Automatic annotation (TrEMBL), chain A:
<dbReference type="GO" id="GO:0008115">
    <property type="term" value="F:sarcosine oxidase activity"/>
</dbReference>
<protein>
    <submittedName>
        <fullName>Sarcosine oxidase subunit delta</fullName>
    </submittedName>
</protein>
<dbReference type="GO" id="GO:0046653">
    <property type="term" value="P:tetrahydrofolate metabolic process"/>
</dbReference>
<dbReference type="Pfam" id="PF04267">
    <property type="entry name" value="SoxD"/>
</dbReference>
<dbReference type="InterPro" id="IPR038561">
    <property type="entry name" value="SoxD_sf"/>
</dbReference>
<dbReference type="InterPro" id="IPR006279">
    <property type="entry name" value="SoxD"/>
</dbReference>
From TrEMBL, chain B:
<dbReference type="GO" id="GO:0005737">
    <property type="term" value="C:cytoplasm"/>
</dbReference>
<keyword id="KW-0560">Oxidoreductase</keyword>
<feature type="domain" description="FAD dependent oxidoreductase">
    <location>
        <begin position="37"/>
        <end position="384"/>
    </location>
</feature>
<dbReference type="GO" id="GO:0008115">
    <property type="term" value="F:sarcosine oxidase activity"/>
</dbReference>
<keyword id="KW-0547">Nucleotide-binding</keyword>
<dbReference type="InterPro" id="IPR006076">
    <property type="entry name" value="FAD-dep_OxRdtase"/>
</dbReference>
<dbReference type="Pfam" id="PF01266">
    <property type="entry name" value="DAO"/>
</dbReference>
<dbReference type="InterPro" id="IPR036188">
    <property type="entry name" value="FAD/NAD-bd_sf"/>
</dbReference>
<keyword id="KW-0963">Cytoplasm</keyword>
Amino acid sequence: MIINHPILGPRDAQEFVYLGDAALIARPDGLAPGAQEAFHDYLYLRDNPAGLHRELWYHEQGDRSWLVVTRNTLTHEITQVELARDVARSLGRSK
Amino acid sequence: MFGSGHYSGFRVIKEALTGHKGWRPAWRDPEPQKSYDFIIIGGGGHGLATAYYLAKQFNQSRIAVLEKGYLGGGNVGRNTTIIRSNYLLDGNEPFYEFSLKLWEGLEQDFNFNAMVSQRGILNLYHTDAQRDAYTRRGNAMILHGADADLLDRDQVRAMYPFLNFDNARFPIKGGLAQRRGGTVRHDAVAWGYARGADQRGVDLIQNCEVTGIRTENGRVTGVDTSRGFIGAKKVGVAVAGNSSRVMAHVGMRLPIESHVLQAFVSEGLKPLIDGVITYGAGHFYVSQSDKGGLVFGGDIDGYNSYAQRGNMPVVEDVAEGGMSLMPMIGRARLLRSWGGIMDMSMDGSPIIDRTDIDGLYFNGGWCYGGFKATPASGWCFAHLLATDKPHETATAYRFDRFRKGLMIDEKGQGAQPNLH
């Protein structure tokens, strides 16, 4: 698989480490009511879809950036690559 | 007993003398009935074993197995056929030892030649620390009634003189042997259970994809399928690889990711490896099929996938593992490779449990160790379906173990499915 890095261009997926569902960006608030349940779901439960999947890849052998890759789990086709930083900021994190 | 009759040496001779006119299909191809007491979703090894033990061991009737494709077309037909019970943790070892005991009597039990071959499995170690870990593992196995034998370098050399003992980085120092481990003809496991279940009145319904699970007041009432609605008092899901897709019908999210695992077969060679060998310094395991091909595999690809094929980096990684362990493997040509979809769970261990919906039961999360578990998985799932209580060897395989902090994490990797 080739991941089209937004800054570095097309890179082999071997340069990356895979973490999992991009929903992991949205870490629950540990002080909110129901945090224990929210963290159980956050840590252990996954949508695991067959089809388009937004997921976190870390460019360990490259510029050490985190990417959000949109990939089809049925075909391995990659349709979109974003910097995780941009995705996180659009969700209102790390302002 | 009806249908295909009893298989025996006497039967073979009798059929040979009468022009082979007495053989019948090994199972029927029935139309689905309006409703059943038990519906098992998934006609793979685990689903067929569940139906078989429900009928035979727990004396239940009105059972159907629904399969979206053909029987045994998933992971039971795509694995590297190894059986063993060399686990460390209390939650796992009794279950896998129960499974190995069932393998030992399986062929007589379901009257089908599954070519169960206890040719032994050898896990190599390469460092003192690894030897200590295997000593501990071997002791845990023995304490649970399994067999284990710690071998030194010379004993391993006597078994497999061709291994790369003097690898500068990973010299082979010995191995942990389980002599009761071995291999089984994987397709025959599905066929044997299918035939045994069919003979006991189980309807095996193929080309019947479940498209929905109906519930009423928190209780399951049946399933919608590509062949219409089928009512059921109890529904058991045994579709590892696709668990998340099926359980999404009732809005359940699972502690599971689907990943692809590749396996490989070389061209046929003369007898070379009479057991199963696993490499301790990389992820590589190899045995030789009765046809002569070396059957081997390694790590999962490491990213979510429902495609039954992997990519080149892991092919290269597995080949490197093989070359490092036994350099002469480089002279053999690769014949085939394929991929299967694994339920990778959050702690690397399976789930056999009830759900929040009455009458809906779940069996999955087998990671890449589901084949060896097939008999015990079927038995324990049938036990749960018939009695509503977990089997004594499967009490730890609960959904709520993540909530309670009772993970069964053999590798100690934490909640990162692609590392198990």
